[in-house]
């Protein structure tokens, strides 16, 4: 990368992006483009500048032009002033009649409110970043810087959202852990109570068996006891 300086011009020459060939590629076949260097919106190959943005809850890698196209209300399309969430108020701004783009009134050149069209709406083939011969001058540096600011703000919001989601998941996990602990404690209490009840029933059955005389009602037969006692006293066989 080389930089050229003059009194009225500042330019940056980017090195040529020459793809490396593989031994399996045939000479007449085009070398496949690296997907990591493709814009996630227009599919254009950008070997130098891809911006990470969070769009509709999805992280995407976009070229400079697509970043600006997809955030029309975040900057002035004429001077590339980034609004940072505070666009100019009336009457210092003018809105595009076809999209949500907002431009400074003085940048729009006194265009009537109902007839103003931003550059992309005026020309469908318009590009905010028409890089040619890998050279960046001041006219290209402005949209590049604006797109970088939009990307930085977008990623800061994405980090805040991720942080909030992490805190919420941690709170949900703590609540689930508390409920699981309470459920285990209740299960332990029910198990201990059931075991105690079963033990009482077993003891009651043993007592009933000891007192049962065979008639099935569980009461002691007094006559039989007296007969046994008399037989033992007389040393007679028990009938």
UniProtKB/TrEMBL annotation:
Domain of life per record: Eukaryota
Region (Disordered) residue spans: 1-30
Compositionally skewed regions (Polar residues) per UniProt: 1-11, 18-27
PANTHER family reported in the protein's UniProt record: PHD FINGER FAMILY PROTEIN, PHD-TYPE DOMAIN-CONTAINING PROTEIN
Listed name of the protein: DNA binding protein
Organism of derivation: Corchorus olitorius
């Amino acid at each position: 990368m080389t930089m050229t300086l003059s009194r009225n011009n500042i330019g940056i020459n980017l090195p040529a992006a020459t793809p490396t060939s593989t031994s399996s590629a045939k000479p007449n076949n085009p070398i496949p483009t690296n997907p990591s260097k493709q814009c996630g919106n227009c599919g254009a190959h950008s070997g130098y500048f891809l911006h990470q943005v969070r769009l509709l809850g999805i992280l995407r890698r976009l070229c400079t032009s697509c970043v600006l196209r997809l955030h029309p209300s975040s900057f002035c399309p004429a001077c590339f002033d980034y609004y940072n969430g505070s666009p100019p108020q009336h009457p210092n701004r003018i809105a595009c009649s076809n999209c949500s783009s907002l431009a400074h009134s003085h940048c729009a050149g006194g265009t009537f409110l109902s007839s103003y069209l931003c550059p992309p709406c005026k020309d469908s083939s318009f590009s905010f970043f028409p890089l040619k011969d890998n050279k960046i001058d001041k006219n290209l540096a402005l949209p590049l810087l604006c797109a970088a600011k939009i990307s930085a703000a977008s990623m800061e919001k994405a980090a805040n959202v991720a942080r909030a989601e992490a805190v919420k998941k941690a709170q949900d996990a703590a609540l689930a852990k508390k409920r699981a602990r309470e459920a285990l404690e209740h299960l332990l209490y029910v198990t201990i109570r059931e075991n105690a009840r079963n033990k009482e029933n077993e003891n009651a059955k043993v007592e009933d068996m000891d007192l049962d005389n065979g008639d099935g009602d569980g009461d002691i037969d007094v006559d039989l006891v007296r007969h046994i006692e008399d037989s033992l006293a007389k040393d007679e066989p028990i009938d």
